[in-house]
Amino acid sequence: MTRVLVVDDEPQIVRALVINLRARHYEVDAAHTGAQALRLAAERQPDVVVLDLGLPDMDGTEVLAGLRGWTRTPVIVLSARHTSDEKVRALDAGADDYVTKPFGMDELLARLRAAVRRAEPQPPDGLPVVDAGDFTVDLAARRVRRGGADVRLTPTEWHVVEVLVRNSGRLVTQQQLLREVWGPAYRTETHYLRVYLAQVRRKLEPDPSRPRHFLTEPGMGYRFEP
User: Fold this and answer.
1) 82-109 core/surface letters (b: 16 or more CB in 10 A; e: else)
2) Of these four, 171, 176, 196, 212, which has the most CB atoms within 10 Å of its CB?
3) In which broad location class does this protein mainly occur, judging by the first location in its UniProt entry (predicted)?
């Protein structure tokens, strides 16, 4: 069973999420503070975290930083903060998705399922290791290495890299990338692409400000060049 950690200090939201998730056969743990969330994440090893940003003891981005120090577990932010700056800040801190309150339960559950799917290991397909010179991408092992060491990518970062590498040398439109990584409901969320491509470039490009491999085609999309 998929285990979900719900982190929120509003009892009615926690109760609604716990009831709905358990009704759909998820295992659920709940935390009401950031410290409790970090402890439960270490103890219970959830498959996905649903995280509120406005916690009583620390900001949710601090929880994100604590999680990203040791795990790639998908994190869906669930917050009343609606501004684009807040969304970008959370995504940049390592969140995989962002849902604003008030929210529709069906949409949240769909996004949770998508996050879990992206994090699931895919069966090997026999594709070769792609050597970009500065780094290598092993599509079968779902691993990126740079300078002889593994590069830690979040599940969403990996999925972005995977889609672009599988289409090496070809333009991947913004809509195609959003659809393949996040799903059809995300076709207008182009700021996700800016945030995640910036993160991928920081981790893999020799000079992220002048990318050689993950290229932007202005107004159209992105292209991977080995």
Assistant:
1) eeeebbbbbbebbbbbbbeeeeeeeebe
2) 196
3) cytoplasm
CA dist 56 and 149 (Å) reads 38
Q: What is the DSSP string of 89-148?
A: HHHHTT-SEEEESS--HHHHHHHHHHHHHHHSPPPP--PPEEE-SS-EEETTTTEEEETT
Full residue range of the structural domain in which residue 163 is found:
129-224
Q: Is the bond into 102 cis (omega within 30 degrees of 0)?
A: yes
Q: How many domains does the chain have?
A: 2
Do 104 and 145 share a domain, yes or no?
no
124 is a domain residue:
no
Map residue 190 onto helix, strand or coil: helix
Q: Based on the fold, state whether residues 133 and 49 are members of the same structural domain.
A: no
Q: Are residues 31 and 95 in the same domain?
A: yes
Question: What does the pLDDT look like over 176-201, one tens digit per residue?
Answer: 899 888 887 888 899 999 999 999 99
- Answer whether residue 172 is part of any domain: yes
**Whole-structure pTM over 0.70, yes or no?**
no
CA neighbours closer than 13 Å in the CB half-sphere of residue 219: 0
Question: DSSP label at 223?
Answer: E
Are 15 and 115 in the same domain? yes
- Summarised one tens digit per residue, pLDDT across range 65-109 is 888 878 889 999 999 988 888 888 898 888 999 999 999 999 999
Phi, psi of 89 (to 5 degrees): -60, -45
Same-domain pairing of 15 and 106: yes
| Nearest C-alpha neighbor of 190 from the set 173, 165, 212 | 173
How many Cβ atoms are within 10 Å of 123's Cβ, its own excluded? 6
